[in-house]
Amino acid sequence: MKGESRAEIKRTVRAVATGTLIGSAAAMLILLLSVWAVIKMQTVPYGAVPVITASAAAAGGLIGGYICGRIGKRMGMASGAVCGAVMTGIFVIIGAACGGAVGGMTLLRLLLTVVGGALGGIAGVNKRRKRK
Fold it and tell me: Which residue has the higher pLDDT, 101 or 54?
């Protein structure tokens, strides 16, 4: 980040913060919809629960990374990956506060969320702007 102006750094930080908030909200909404679907089905295999949660985290990372890339307008992969990592950190802190444990599935969610955020950041930066 050598040679960047304060305005560019501020825009990147704002993009990561906004992407993290929107991506986290999207992941929570996806989880709520998944819980609703499971309740309606009245049965779900036990092995499907980690897959559902990991998929929701990855989709939230993708959405957050996309928003981050659209706002930041540059460095989409890096800022999207940071957005995904911050999202996972938030999820781990909330999970630990509720009595959850950190294990191998947490590392998989971290990987999926960071990769999803990076891909979303690339897509957000490369999205064509509308011409007026």
Answer: 54
